[in-house]
Amino acid sequence: MKGRPAPQRTIVVDGKPLPDVLDEAMIVSVVHGFYDRIRSDELLGPIFNDAIAPQDWPRHLDKMCDFWSATLLRTGRYDGRPLPPHLALPGLGEMHFRRWLSLFRATVQGLCPPDVAALFMDRAMRIAHSFRLAIAFSRGEDTLLMQPILEQSL
After folding, report:
1. At residue 15, does pLDDT exceed 80?
2. What pTM was estimated for this model as a whole?
3. Which residues touch 112 (CB under 8 Å, ≥6 apart)?
4. How many structural domains are present in the chain?
């Protein structure tokens, strides 16, 4: 039986349709560009390069592309648990998350239109705060007064 083609699904994020320019290719560019910065960063590079063996980087980048695709494009491709590997990193603290967010912001602002960069940053800010809370909680620290890192403070 022939009928009309299925309408394209409009992805809505925070009550607004997702910009058409945000696609898999942009996600790949952001992920690869961001981790290029991370790997060469004086503060974060040693942490990531110690945690991820050189031969495992392609798999890690694929996984991060799946994560961002699922997060923003709602593809459902990511089925991992991103928090546990971060909980295993000793000494991970606010300065690391600030640098992570600064590098991420520089990447998305350099590669994406402003509305898409804002979407990426909104999610990154939420993820950073959630991870900071979970890490502090797992260490038995008081999290009641922990405030999110604000983008304007980066």
Report:
1. no
2. 0.88
3. 21, 22, 26, 30, 120
4. 1
